[in-house]
Amino acid sequence: MKNSQKGFIVPVLLVVISLLVVGGGVYVYYSKRSEVPAVVDTEKQQSNQIQQQTTQTPPATNKATSSITVVSPSAGERVSAGSSFLIKWDSTNVSNRVLLTLHLSGIQQVIAPDSGADITVPNSGSFTWKVPKSFDELNSTPVDLDYVAYITINDAQNKNIIGQSKNFTIVPANGLKTYSDTSILFEYSSLLSVGQSDGAVILNHSIAYKHSYACDFKGDAPLLDRFTDFGVSIKIVNQNLKTYLQSSSYPSWDYVSKNIFKFGSWDGYRVTQGLEGCGSDVYYFPVSKNKSLIISRSLIPEFTTAPDTNVQRLPGIITPYQNEKIFAEILSSLKVK
C-alpha cells in the first residue's frame, strides 16, 4: 500500500514542478517584453509636424498697396477744345512723377508740359491741361464734333500702377455756326461751306481726291478731282405740300404720303430718289397751309451700298458717323420763320 502511494505521489510532484517551471518562464518573458521601448515611426511623425506647420495662419504683412484715382474729369463732363482744364487725381504709394495720356477715337496722345523733354508731370495731384483745338492724329482737323474721351494716369516708374477717368466729352471750341435768312434759321458745322442756288440753301463739304465716279453706270465718265462727303439743300416753298407735289411729275403725293418720317418736332415724309446708293433722300415737311419745307440730302455710295474703308480714312474726310451727326444737328436746330 505504501509503495503504491509513493508511485502515485512522484508523478504528481513532477507535474507540479513542470507547471512551476513553465509559469516562471512565461512570467519572465512578458516582464522582459514590457521593458523593451516602443518603435517610433519618425518619418510619419515629421510629416505630421510639417502638416501642422503649413496649416497655421501665415503672419500678416504690412505691404502697402499703390493706387491712382482720377477725380477730374468726371463722368459725362463736357470740356471745350482749346480751353484750359484742371485734371485732378489722388494717389497712394506712387513715385513723384506720373504720365498722363488722352484716349479718344482709337487715338492715344500724351498730355505733356508745354516745354522740356520730359513728358511726365509732377505727382502733385493736379495738372492744368491745354485742351488741343485739333489732333495731329486726326490730320489737324479742327475739333468741330463731339469726341468721347478718357484720361489714364500711370506711375512713371511702374506702368502697372494706373488710374483711369470716366468718359467725358470734348466739344468744339466755338460751337456750331448759325445760318439765318428771311425764311429759315439753323445751326451747322463749321466744316461745311454754305451757299445758295435756285432759292435753296446749299451745304457742302469735299476734299481733294482724284477718283472714279461711283455712280457712273456707263463707265465712261472722267475722273473726279474732289470727293464730296456731305451735300444738303434746304428750300422753303410757299405752297401746301400736297399741292406742291401734285404740280410736279415725280414723286406723287400718294407715294410720298405713305413714307412717314419723324425727327424731333418734325413730322413729314422721306423718299429715296435714285438707285444703288446713288441719288438723294428727299424730306418733305408741311409747315403751314401755304408753306412747305423740302430738304434734299445726297447719298454717298462709298458710305452705304459700296462702303470703301480707304475713302473713309482719307485725311480731312467727314466720316459716315460724322455725316449723320452733322445732318441731325441741322435738322434739330432748323426753324422756319
TrEMBL record:
It comes from the Bacteria. It holds the Pfam family Kre9_KNH. Keywords: Membrane, Signal, Transmembrane, Transmembrane helix. The chain crosses the membrane at residues 7-30. Residues 72-170 form the Yeast cell wall synthesis Kre9/Knh1-like N-terminal domain. This is Yeast cell wall synthesis Kre9/Knh1-like N-terminal domain-containing protein.
